[in-house]
Specification:
With 105 residues, the protein is of the alpha+beta class. It binds zinc ion (ZN). The site of zinc ion has 7 residues, from helix 2.
């Protein structure tokens, strides 16, 4: 269902708080900055998500986004959190509302 191919483009609109992905098949995915933060890919946050703990309790904006080729994406948030790499498959799952299912594997 999801693939590991990098997005063609990733853009973040600070005004709307929306991150937009354009995938290889030209479909688009969108996720808000706070939602993306709540599904942080680092080990600590993944465990919290899996056991149902709140990863972040307030709105969060993005300071920078860096694409790492096929490895995925790193994001630095306003709270200083910049751990973990979001694999492209995981980002596709987040945009599709399937993040928790993806993490459960
Ligand atoms: Zn994290």
């Amino acid at each position: 269902m999801y693939n590991a191919l990098p997005a063609v483009s990733v853009s973040y609109d600070r005004a709307t708080h929306i991150v937009t992905f354009v995938w290889q098949d030209e479909t688009r995915g969108e996720v808000s900055d706070t939602e993306l933060r709540s599904f942080c890919a680092c080990a600590d946050c993944r465990v919290k998500t899996l056991v149902g703990q709140v990863v972040i309790g307030r709105d969060c904006t993005i300071e920078s986004i860096e694409a790492l080729g096929t490895a995925g994406l790193t994001v630095r948030y306003c709270d200083g959190h910049d751990k973990g790499i979001y694999p492209w498959e995981y980002l596709q799952a987040i945009c599709a509302g399937d993040a928790k299912e993806y993490l459960r594997g």
